[in-house]
Amino acid sequence: xxxxxxxxxxxxxxxxxxxxxxxxxxxxxxxxxxxxxxxxxxxxxxxxxxxxxxxxxxxxxxxxxxxxxxxxxxxxxxxxxxxxxxxxxxxxxxxxxxxxxxxxxxxxxxxxxxxxxxxxxxxxxxxxxxxxxxxxxxxxxxxxxxxxxxxxxxxxxxxxxxxxxxxxxxxxxxxxxxxxxxxxxxxxxxxxxxxxxxxxxxxxxxxxxxxxxxxxxxxxxxxxxxxxxxxxxxxxxxxxxxxxxxxxxxxxxxxxxxxxxxxxxxxxxxxxxxxxxxxxxxxxxxxxxxxxxxxxxxxxxxxxxxxxxxxxxxxxxxxx
Length: 320
Known about the structure:
By secondary structure, the protein is mainly β. It has one domain. Helices cover 12% and strands 42% of the residues. It contains four helices and 20 strands. The chain has helices at 150-162, 195-198, 239-244, 266-282, and strands at residues 2-3, 10-16, 19-20, 24-31, 52-58, 65-71, 87-94, 97-105, 115-119, 122-125, 132-135, 138-145, 165-180, 191-194, 205-208, 211-215, 219-237, 295-298, 301-307, 313-316. The protein has a six-stranded mixed sheet with strand order 4-5-17-13-7-8. Strands 1, 2, 3, 6 and 9 form a five-stranded antiparallel sheet that branches. The protein has a three-stranded antiparallel sheet with strand order 10-11-16, with no helix packed on it.
């Protein structure tokens, strides 16, 4: 799970198949930032940056996922500089699109209790634009297109900028009145992007939002005076893409298989025996006296190592 050093008591994770996704750090793992709103040294131009953490997780096509944020002992519930903010909000963005938000009054967070917010769905309009439907989150594959018009490259570049990214923003806010929740996500994700638009990034997946059924139109708690205090970013990639971006090390080369003498021809056996003898002669770290009873052990059978009248050494290939 991802944590921020400046926000103790808060953790955020992506859950895949009922288990927390394994997170891999990167060069930009955490930007310390500040909550007080002053300029941060991490900002390139001296601008203010909120505390932010960025990690990578592994994604697989067709797999459902959800987001969980847990507030526990140690989380700060009072911010004197933002005294009018009475709520804590967890907002989720997927591929750059806002999908849902969970919130709670600050005075409902108990210092010695854990509270977990789960974001596992969003809402959209049905195909006929008349009904509200509930949608889940599913990883969908991305394919590349070699030839594309300038217009498509420009449009795909906008999509690729935030594709493959789950972002969770933590805000303080002031509650006002209730209103209608309006969300419209692309229910079926089909990602065929121009290769030039991806600019060399190993983007393997986006998110589709499969419909689970018709839902009643949800109401939303309206808020104002939003103040961001932390951000959690999860970039999701296939295992191969994680290796391509050097987040994971390349796979190990398989160990060479042991030679099976039982399947060798006489010619191959002679070559194998000669190579073995040369290797033994060249080895200076191991000293061994060879007599007529010495044997060469290999998988499957054993062969005698004998001395010829000329003084040369040979492997006896005759059957006993």
